[in-house]
Amino acid sequence: MILPIYTYGNAVLRKVAEPINADYPELNTLIDNMFQTMYHAEGVGLAAPQVGLPIRLLVIDLAPFKEDDPELGAFKITMINPEILERSEEEVSGDEGCLSIPGIHETVSRAQSIKITYLDPDFKEHTDVFEGYKARVVQHEYDHLEGHLFTDHVTPIRRQLLKSKLTNIVKGKASCGYKVKTA
């Protein structure tokens, strides 16, 4: 089932998400619905707060990049209760957008590599190191679990320049090709 994506201005996007356990109701259905929602919106990552749930769950599928980089194309992951353990000092700037902030893209600096621990859908624990674009996307989605948005990482002057566009999103005046829930 395709779920509505909560857009900028919704309070759930600013909450620190809560951990879940294996008893979370219909978790596998939720994960499937999140992937379907993400694919329908032509995204590569989606965190549970973006579908209105303040829980520590995110999904990522970098298949759209398989022609440019087969390693990225094979990266499909579900993370439950992730926690970033380490971030490299080296940062890399790159363009980011967000399904919850339609029509806006900005340059954001992120750690080049991260070490993260998380549970998979079978609640098996993993600790992995991700670099480059994988690290960027994981950090972007992880931010949603911490109540942060990519626009929080832009310079104050850029944020000021985005103010009218963000206000339009809050007012439901943003155009996108997927179902949204405005503030």
From TrEMBL:
Q: Can you name this protein? A: Peptide deformylase
Say which domain of life the source belongs to: Bacteria
Q: Name any one GO molecular function.
A: peptide deformylase activity
Q: What does this protein do?
A: Removes the formyl group from the N-terminal Met of newly synthesized proteins. Requires at least a dipeptide for an efficient rate of reaction. N-terminal L-methionine is a prerequisite for activity but the enzyme has broad specificity at other positions.
Please list the reactions this protein catalyses: N-terminal N-formyl-L-methionyl-[peptide] + H2O = N-terminal L-methionyl-[peptide] + formate
Alphabetically sorted, this entry's keywords are: Hydrolase, Iron, Metal-binding, Protein biosynthesis
Does the record carry Metal-binding as a key word? yes
Q: What does the record list as GO biological process?
A: translation
**Name of the coding gene:** def
Native source organism of the sequence: Paludibacter propionicigenes (strain DSM 17365 / JCM 13257 / WB4)
List cofactor names only: Fe(2+)
